[in-house]
Amino acid sequence: MNEVPPYVPPKVWQWEKGNGGEFASINRPIAGPTHDKPLPVGKHPMQLYSLGTPNGVKVTVLLEELLALGFTGAEYDAWLINIRDGDQFGSGFTAANPNSKIPALMDHSAGTPVRVFESGAILLHLAEKFGAFLPSDPAGRPECLSWLFWQMGSAPYLGGGFGHFYAYAPVKIEYCIDRYAMEVKRQLDVLDRRLAENQYICGDEYTIADIAIWPWYGAVVLNKVYEAAEFLDAASYKHLGRWTREIAERDAVKRGRMVNRTSGPLEEQLRERHDAGDFATRTQDKIEASGGVS
Ligand SMILES: N[C@@H](CCC(=O)N[C@@H](CS)C(=O)NCC(=O)O)C(=O)O
Fold first, then answer.
1. Count of domains forming the chain
2. Residue 281: which pLDDT band, with cuts at 50, 70 and 90?
3. Residue 293: what pLDDT?
């Protein structure tokens, strides 16, 4: 095992600004706003405050899927919350989500705006509102909710556990990487076995369970998070790979992945979305700005 510097925890933990490594500038042990900043409000029924991370992408994919089905009530403005700049601690954002994490949705469709935070709650709220992507039969609905909540409980081991210690921690600690790689590989196997016998997570129907799981576990397979596909031998999960690639081909998924995105190829970034036409215009602008596509 690697040498880990000896650390004896004090009786009471103290916050020393600067600890916390990669995210030290934004991590803090106190909730609540740090500054006054109202949230902007656009013209559509749904106002989304988010960033193009896997948790944010879940919501933009669902909104794009709903729009593709013709649910105009799902029209949305997607505002950028830059978490590295501390936007999640603005007064407007903490009113929308007291937990200061993206995504947060304000649903203006019923008059008085309603807040919804936690990506799983947002997916469920929208699926119920539009009666789509959530089976209604007595066996399908609980199966779908089980996988939705499986994702919400499991992804923190992938992101906050494995991803943090493998990619971001200032020192590589074998114990931590082993602990979380083991758990993440078990989760990948859970999905692989499920998808060996089902086209989608809940059976024959594409649901909010797929929409919640794909941005995290599909991203591992596609090597889009933590550059860990080889380390985790992601290619060996064949059925998960098949499902990942199928979902990546959906037009709504391609659009949803672009929204509030601030990294990766410029032509795949739509930092804010206020109109369905933004995709075409922004893509063209970006391509022209980067000197065209060869
Ligand atoms: N369980 C939450 C997790 C959300 C979350 O962790 N969001 C991250 C970005 S992916 C965030 O906003 N981090 C900002 C911070 O920790 O200050 C959800 O699914 O909505």
1. 1
2. confident
3. 39
63 contacts 74 by C-beta, under 8 angstroms: yes
In a domain, 124, yes or no: yes
pLDDT of residue 288: 60
Are 241 and 221 in contact, with CB atoms under 8 Å apart? Answer: yes
Instruction: From 49, 51, 55, give the residue whose CB has the most ligand 1 atoms within 8 Å, as the site to mutate.
Output: 55
Residue 159 lies in a domain: no
- Ligand 1 neighbourhood includes 118 CB (under 6 angstroms): yes
pLDDT > 70? residue 44: yes
What is the spatial distance between Cα 206 and Cα 159, in angstroms, rounded to a whole number? 24
Supply the DSSP string of 38-65, one letter for each residue.
Answer: PPP--SSSEEEEE-SSHHHHHHHHHHHH
CATH number of the domain within which 64 lies: 3.40.30.10
The number of the ligand 1 atom at minimal distance from the alpha carbon of 121 is 20
62-119 residue pLDDT tens: 999 999 999 999 999 999 999 999 999 999 999 999 999 999 999 999 989 999 999 9
pTM (2 decimals)?
0.94
Question: d(Cα 31, Cα 51) in Å, to the nearest integer?
Answer: 20
**Closest residue to atom 19 of ligand 1, CA basis:** 119
Q: Has residue 221 been placed in a domain? A: no
- Sheet with 104-107, edge to edge strand ranges: 76-80, 46-50, 104-107, 114-117
